[in-house]
Amino acid sequence: MRTRTRILLFAAGAAGSAALFTAGALDLPRFGGALHPYGDRAVHQALRESTTNTVSSVNFDQRAFDTIGEELILMASAIGAVVLLRVVGKEAEDQGATHRHGPAEVSDALRIVGYLLLPVTLLIGVYVVAHGAQSPGGGFQGGVILGTAIHLLYLAGDYPALQRLRPIPVFESTEALAAGVFVAMALAAAGAVPALNGAVGVEVGCALVLLIGKFFEQALLVREPPGEPS
Amino acid sequence: MSHLPYLTAGWIILIGIYGIVTSRDLIHAVVCLSITQSGTYVLLLAIGYRYGATAPVFSDRPPHGRPVTDPVVQAMTLTDIVVGATVTALLLALTVQVAKRRGTLDPGELRSLES
């Protein structure tokens, strides 16, 4: 399709969508109004279960079935991305590509800050997961902090240490295990909010480590054209 | 203009789709998809907003003080963000594959499905 035709087609569709969306939006309750029936009931229920962070209560208690779906989407995309990247990496290795050992030049300041922040960031991640039921935070947010924390080692230029700290197979099985634990707890309606929070935290953290790890391997792959002296 | 925040969300979504339609680079298209999705965050949070309200967390204050914003749509936004992030990762992995197999990232040059 020519670019011009495509834009014309888009313009027609966008005009229609915009008209319908505007008509729908104008019928919504006023912005910032006091009418929030679902919100009020969710707050009431959360306080009855003494989960002071209402958002965690909605995610892991009142709508835990939805969170199962979300968990499985997370796992499926992580598996898909890891498999796709693994194929690319393996083919390149078969053609004689090698991996560099981390970013080339790292300044001393970045190195020191990376090493200093690593334990602090891990601690904050654990705190955010563990206190997700009471204060702002939760498994998803804390898992992201945990998953990114160990990659401060990459910023510090210590890729071999990062590889020792994150054996990929262990993280793969831990992710699957955490997802299984979450589904089992949610289906049995046995999990308290902190336990579900913890399972989600572990799963999100592992998924992130896997994804970032695979993208790093891509970034550090050195392809040498065949038959050319290096 | 009490409906302006909702219309802003619709505008962000349309701008994102416009970016995908006119994209000349798959990574750019993935970023545009993220922008489209951020329109849904704006829409959800705008629906849940309440004037004079604070965050729906009661760890350090009594339950029946100030009104709070709607926690249901906030939890949905959280779901939305997580799904968006993982889908972006998956699409970027696909982009790596496309770049390797076809040697181009321009969607206009990707004609057939066979490699």
From TrEMBL, chain A:
The keyword Mitochondrion does not apply. Keywords: Cell membrane, Membrane, Signal, Transmembrane, Transmembrane helix. Residues 1-25 form the signal peptide. It is found in: Cell membrane. InterPro entries: CPA3_antiporter_subunitB, MnhB. Residues 110-200 form the Na+/H+ antiporter MnhB subunit-related protein domain. It comes from the Bacteria. Pfam families: MnhB. The keyword Membrane applies. The chain crosses the membrane at residues 72-89, 109-130, 136-155, 176-193. Belongs to the CPA3 antiporters (TC 2.A.63) subunit B family. PANTHER family: NA(+)/H(+) ANTIPORTER SUBUNIT B, NA(+)_H(+) ANTIPORTER SUBUNIT B. This is Na+/H+ antiporter MnhB subunit-related protein domain-containing protein. It comes from Actinomadura napierensis.
UniProtKB/TrEMBL annotation, chain B:
It comes from the Bacteria. It is found in: Cell membrane. Its main location: membrane. It holds the Pfam family Oxidored_q2. InterPro entries: CPA3_antiporter_subunitC (IPR050601), NUOK/Mnh_C1-like (IPR039428). The chain crosses the membrane at residues 6-23, 30-52, 72-94. It is a multi-pass membrane protein. The keyword Transmembrane helix applies. Keywords: Cell membrane, Membrane, Transmembrane, Transmembrane helix. Belongs to the CPA3 antiporters (TC 2.A.63) subunit C family. This is NADH-quinone oxidoreductase subunit K. It comes from Actinomadura napierensis.
